[in-house]
Amino acid sequence: MSEIINWLNNREFLDGDYLGNLCRNNHEYKNTGKSVRCKPTDRKNGKCVCCVKIQKAKNYLNYKEEKKIYQKQNEKHIKEYRRERYRLNMLDPVFRQNTIEYKRKRRREQGILPKKILTAIKNAGSPTVVELIQKQIKETRKNFLQTMNKEDLQKEKNMQAKKLYAKSLSNRIMHKQKARRNKFQDSGNYVENIPTQQLVNRFYTFNNCCAYCGSFQGLNIQIEHVVPRSKGGAHCLANIIPACRKCNTSKFNYPMEKWYRKQSFFSKDRLEKIKEVLSQTSYPPKQQELFHDWQIK
Questions:
Q1: pLDDT tens digits, 17-31
Q2: Where is the domain boundary, 64, 88, 108?
Q3: C-alpha to C-alpha distance for 143 and 152, rounded to whole angstroms
Q4: Does 289 score more than 50 pLDDT?
Q5: pLDDT tens, 149-204?
Q6: Is there a single domain that holds both residue 60 and residue 173?
Q7: Does residue 227 contact residue 290 with C-beta atoms inside 8 Å?
Q8: Residue 225: beta bridge partners?
Q9: Which CATH number belongs to the domain containing residue 180 in this structure?
Q10: What is the domain count for the chain?
């Protein structure tokens, strides 16, 4: 009891605090016969600040571990709830204005210029710090490449190509298509030089998923030829769909529809989508005899 009284006597009055009737636990403030109470909300008198502190301490000690477990298990739900609560609070003009003023105050304390001044500097045509840094990086890299010999320069280009291959879907598809086109050309099959963007659009039609099993492949998507190379198939957009490595290997050179119907992941909807997409693509006249009826209109 003496500890909480000492805490109360040393505590400063916060916004909304006032001296009210003595609480049931006799938390008296400096022998005034009254208790320090919070700002009243939905009740006549506000709660005693000492009682609130004791209750919070009890709850924290009693449910400390349970709260930690709950927060870990429901971390996503808690973030969504807080985000939604903040969104609803921002609809209140008073809360919104107070939030804006608080952020302005913090920015001034940190020495950040007001947004109006920053916008005026940007509109005046002056380069930002980021733009100056990017320009300096480009100049430094250019000077560095000029000092390199041919072997080191080629190694640097190969390294940059590998980085681009690892990050860019269009770059990866371009290299895969080039390798497949060369194989078809060596076999004497009909070959078309397909623009990379057309292949990217074709893969996006299937959401970068395997057209057979529906698994998402992302950058690891493969080019699948419905009529295989060994059967005289063409390397053209009317003969290409995306596939995962497993399905592409399993299909081998079997007829597509016959092989697909035997698989455990067979889907009639996916088969209809494959037929619909391929039937809408123009086909090479020289290869007409190799295509299925549903591929030719």
A1: 888 888 888 888 888
A2: 64
A3: 14
A4: yes
A5: 888 888 888 888 888 888 888 899 999 999 999 999 999 888 988 999 899 999 98
A6: no
A7: yes
A8: 240
A9: 3.30.40
A10: 2
Looking at the domain assignment, is residue 77 inside a domain?
no
Question: DSSP labels for 225-258?
Answer: ESS-GGGT--BSGGGEEEE-HHHHHHHTTS-HHH
Rounded (10°) CA dihedral 271, 277, 282, 288: 0
Q: What amino acid occupies position 62?
A: N
Whether 147 is in a domain gets the answer: no
For residue 237, the enclosing domain spans: 169-295
131 within a domain of the structure (yes/no): no
pLDDT beyond 90 at 145:
no
Residue 92 has pLDDT above 90, yes or no: no
Confidence band, pLDDT 50/70/90 cuts, at residue 286: low
Spatial separation of the C-alpha atoms in residues 156 and 163, rounded to whole Å: 11
| Token pair for 3 | 């500890």
Within a domain: residue 228? yes
Q: Which two tokens stand for residue 150?
A: 């041919």
Dist. CA 289–CA 284, nearest whole Å: 10
Give the pair of three-digit tokens for residue 223.
């080019």
DSSP code, position 18? E
Q: 297 pLDDT band (50/70/90 cuts)?
A: very low
Out of 64, 85, 116, pick the residue that ends a domain.
64
Task: Return the pLDDT at 285.
Answer: 64
Query: What share of the chain has pLDDT > 70, as a percent?
Result: 90
Cβ–Cβ under 8 Å, residues 242 and 222: yes
Contact 223, 192 (CB under 8 A): no
